[in-house]
Amino acid sequence: MATMVEIFDTTLRDGEQSPGASMDEHEKIQMALQLERLGVDILEAGFPIASKQEFEAVRRVAETIKTSRVAALARAVPGDIERAASALKPAKHPVLHTFIATSNIHLEHKLRMTHQEVLEAAEKAVRLAKSLIPRVEFSAEDATRSDWDYLVAIAKVAIAAGVDVINLPDTVGYTTPDEIREMFRYVIANTPGSERVVFSSHNHNDLGLAVANALAAIDGGARQVECTVNGIGERAGNTSLEEVVMAMRTRNDVYSFDCRIASREIVPASTLLSKLTGLSIPFNKPVVGRNAFAHESGIHQHGMIANAKTYEIMTPESVGRSRSDLVLGKHSGRAGLAKRSAELGYQLEENQLNKLYEKFIDLADRKKEVYDDDLRMLIVRQSNEDFEIYRLKEVDTFGNNPSKALVKLTKGDETLIDSATGDGPVHASCLAIDRISGLSGQLETFEIRATTPGKEALGEAYVTVKFGERSMKGKGASTSIIEAAVLAYLDAVNKYLALQETTESGISAPVM
Ligand code: KIV
Ligand code: ZN
User: Fold this and answer.
1) N or C: which end of the chain has fewer CB within 10 A?
2) Which of 342, 358, 385 is the C-terminal boundary of a domain?
């Protein structure tokens, strides 16, 4: 029988630390629910000491998630640990994850601590964490560039302090498969009491070796793998969840281990993350890229017709992708819509389905064929409405450069209209929104993508807008590119206003 490996997902923590991937509380909850459907054993929700918003997001995820364990990160200092424990209070199965660096380079230049001081800090951190939360993970940051005997020494004190999981991260993506396998074997073999804890592997992808290193670490004795959806994360990212899981499953003749991931939820998780963050998935990304199952050349197509196994080592269905993603038309009923939404990973309640159905019919009227991506976007947009302050009623633009825009918004029962002139229709519309909202946003980034084929393709716009010192992300989708951009700008405005309603904390983001 295959040995089970636990999947520790850190999309919402390490993944979210990567540029452009930040998610607000509402987005984190949507993603957390999809990760739970995906069947991750542990879901790291964030780093509560970083800010009041981060604390609240972790607390809300902890409150919402029932089957996966929910982890929160803390440096090996009492303030961080107490804050993380407090955010985890509502969790059914909490995990407190504390860490300190162990490599000479980090001790000397970052921590300015001796080896003995780090050992003592690790022991105290685990003891405190264990007194607050029943399950504790300890990470020896930069383990793969640390002395192996020092790793043994720190594992020993962590075990004595009651730790449950010891993680040996490849923080800078420096190790190789043979080296990491040996490191795990060495630390496990030489640490008294190692059989009482789970060893975990957390790899970064700076040399493109993260997945290979994770698989080798398991071979060396790790029984937990830390990863992120789409491999997002600091710099070149983390071990990609979908790749490591499908490597285990597809090559189960080589790897004698498995995990509990529901692989059909992989593509829905990947797409949802991309929509929430605006980070696009490279077309050739293994498992989840648009071309991962596309067969272009005549020879390949011929082989596929004869037998799909000629050029496919796993089926698209096994990762939650249909061979055809044409789903519904305007004659599809409510039941068809509910069934397809569920297949895509969204379990809708009756009132959510009713609202979605109206929008679906409206889209199907304008666009004959409704694809999976269209449907996902409608669902995501619907969930964004929860904190909508201003809603777009109409936008009309005239001329090109300069352009004039007339924007009509609603706020509760009030209708607000204003116009502005700008360099192009999008700029003019944003200025008109500023005049209505009284804000002054600077468009920092603006990306537009067509997600579906055809003339009536749905356009998705992703923007980052700076209001004073604060940058907010916004997204919008429409069959009109201008409207998609305006919706994205308005989404950022609404998010900024929603944020202003919550008081900002004085805690600043710590240096990791
Ligand atoms: O890469 C790393 O070392 C980390 C730790 C905090 C686990 O993310
Ligand atoms: Zn990391």
Assistant:
1) N
2) 385
Q: Give the Cα separation of 311 and 231 in Å (integer).
A: 25
Specify the residue with its C-alpha closest to ligand 1, atom 5: 141
CATH number at 468 reads 3.30.160.270
Q: Do 242 and 254 share a domain, yes or no?
A: yes
Q: Is the peptide bond before 402 cis (omega within 30 degrees of 0)?
A: yes
Q: Give a yes or no: residue 284 inside a domain.
A: no
Question: Which ligand 1 atom is at minimum distance from the Cα of 238?
Answer: 1
Domain residue limits at 317: 293-323
Residue 341 Cβ inside 6 Å of ligand 1? The answer reads no
Ligand 1 pocket test: pick from 17, 42, 98, 139 the residue with the most ligand atoms within 8 Å of its Cβ: 139
Digitized pLDDT (tens) for each residue of the chain, 512 residues in all: 899 999 999 999 999 988 888 898 988 999 999 999 999 999 999 999 999 999 999 999 999 999 999 999 999 999 999 999 999 999 999 999 999 999 999 999 999 999 999 999 999 999 999 999 999 999 999 999 999 999 999 999 999 999 999 999 999 999 999 999 999 999 999 999 999 999 999 999 999 999 999 999 999 999 999 999 999 999 999 999 999 999 999 999 999 999 999 999 999 999 889 888 888 899 899 999 988 987 766 777 777 778 888 888 999 999 998 765 556 788 888 888 887 887 666 778 898 999 999 999 988 888 777 877 778 778 867 766 766 889 999 999 999 889 999 999 999 899 999 999 999 999 999 999 999 999 999 998 888 887 666 666 678 888 999 998 888 888 888 888 899 999 999 989 998 887 776 544 333 333 33
The finding on whether 99 has its CB within 6 A of some atom of ligand 1 is: yes
**87 and 100 together in one domain:** yes
Return the ligand number nearest the Cα of 224: 1
Mutation probe of ligand 1 site: the residue of 14, 96, 174, 227 with most atoms within 8 A of C-beta? 14
How far is the C-alpha of 58 from the C-alpha of 43, rounded, in Å? 11
Q: Write down the pTM of the prediction.
A: 0.80
**Same domain, residue pair 143 and 47:** yes
Rounded distance, CA 499 to CA 435, Å? 20
- Spatial neighbors of 78 by CB under 8 A, at least 6 apart, are 124, 128
